[in-house]
Amino acid sequence: MNLEPTIEADFISDEPFHLASGEILSSVKQHYAIYGELNADQSNAVLVFHALSGSARIADWWEGIIGAGKALDTNKNAFICINYIGSCYGSTGAGTVNPKTGKIYGTEFPLITVSDILQGQKKVLEHLGIKKLKAAIGSSVGGMCALQFPVDFSDSVEKCIVIGATELSAMGLALNHLQREALRIEKDVGLARQIAMISYKSPELLNRRFGRNPNRNGENPRRDFEHRFDIAGYLDYQGEIFKNRFDKETFKIISKAMDLFELSDSEIQTIKAKIYLVGISTDWLFPAADVKRLTERLIKNGINAEYIDFKSPDGHDAFLSDTMQMAEILQKIQTEF
Amino acid sequence: MNLEPTIEADFISDEPFHLASGEILSSVKQHYAIYGELNADQSNAVLVFHALSGSARIADWWEGIIGAGKALDTNKNAFICINYIGSCYGSTGAGTVNPKTGKIYGTEFPLITVSDILQGQKKVLEHLGIKKLKAAIGSSVGGMCALQFPVDFSDSVEKCIVIGATELSAMGLALNHLQREALRIEKDVGLARQIAMISYKSPELLNRRFGRNPNRNGENPRRDFEHRFDIAGYLDYQGEIFKNRFDKETFKIISKAMDLFELSDSEIQTIKAKIYLVGISTDWLFPAADVKRLTERLIKNGINAEYIDFKSPDGHDAFLSDTMQMAEILQKIQTEF
After folding, report:
1. Is A90 among the domain residues?
2. Fewest C-beta in 10 Å: which of A240, B17, B142, B260?
3. Residue A2 pLDDT level (bands cut at 50, 70, 90)
4. Taking a contact as any Cβ pair under 8 Å apart, which residues of chain A between 258 and 297 contact chain B?
């Protein structure tokens, strides 16, 4: 049983919500969770951003990282996570009824950006009385959020921890495009998830775990086209279980938001927070070399930025799978707070 | 206008053709092309193997590599290329009428292996009076053929040049699986080709050529979900043009043959030919490190093998795109013949 949030609630606003695209959402619900207790002056608030398929319930995907005495120590700080606008875990998204039409948005849900997500989350923080975050932490698209936050709200955060995230390279854009093509063609999220999975794992991890073994259920790949290798059985299974927990439109919306994330030098120059950038050594979706280059770019623009090496054989997913090392890195950074 | 073959013909055999799977083809046609002239004792025959989507017409995909005075010098040698059994460029495949049923094979075409392909090609060589090849050359799945040939016919070839090929790693198997999943779901070869394309190109090549530019036709990716980045426009285009020249079943059949290629130590020990293995520095489908490891394995098994580094920023496709360097490497190896 994973740790339960101290608070889990919805923040609903009926103010018109202006998106970067020019579209307006007439009502927005944001689902959030808080682990630990906010102190009297709200100075111990840490905002955590989830990844593409994550929810506000941090402990559901960062088990072992968050809790009393853990790297994200709920005895000391209050950790807030807010499901993204456009996501299917409780916030306004494609599955929501559009008040303007009375029908579910579906494919009509507008394009959102990382900044749109943050505009929404800032309203939740204000509602909670939080003026300044002690830290903002995120991995993957969550890392993009953790880096965009001090640009969009430069006085509202002290430290940012950006894990396995940069602007997407051409290869990253290609991988996202293939996933959205798969979503376009297939009725469900199965193949898109399978394509995503290979980008989350390193070649060495796949070799070690699956190699050229036949599928563990006893199939013989030499027999016919249907019989698979173990890696194929694994990918099919991952595609299958994802269908039960994730929505097609959410996948498309957040994938597109990832595509669009990029920062100009003048935007970078507005950052006041200290930025920690964590590169995962075997990540080929967000290569460590790209994270390092981004760190250098921040420093060149006068930002207090530091690169941290996350040595793991697991690939991009190391932030989820390599819990021990992830915890160690987060703990080490926090001793500076 | 590409160089035309000296001879382009079909070899048809009505002998029952026994496949590794146990299935039997009752009649087999193999389409082949010869560039240059076989000498009187047929001692200048070089067998060239095409890649997944290639045909017997070498000059159509290796323009600049083959011709009078070129790296594959048609003044000196006769270069033979035979379309694979199971392919759609003139040989018996899924588009052929099954003599047993009177209907087109379609999805009923049996699974074939690299050894099945070579059994067929050996019959063509015998028909042409060629007892021993001066060399066998191939890239990608063609490289698998060039390495399997001296195992299956150890007295029939002097030198083998294996370019960008090894057993597929788990990541390679994963990529092939995703392509076949795309073929299963989609009516055509579009998405499968797009997935294949990213495995053929290096991240650095994609960055250099496309970066994060908007699609060159003027689309604005920030506008809506349909507007693309340049890399996405490129992949869509590659998927589209492939539909006009390639068959879905052929894709599935040859992809599966690639999956199944692997050699045991005892098979390796039967090799008598000198083996040159060329690793492409930025290839992530067949990483150079894997090609190097395979070379060491051959040497350990007593084979006369040599590793050659093909430094190119282009990724796996360098054997097609980096013509100058490819020609140089082939020329250098051939000075030893």
Report:
1. yes
2. A240
3. confident
4. 259-260, 262, 284, 287
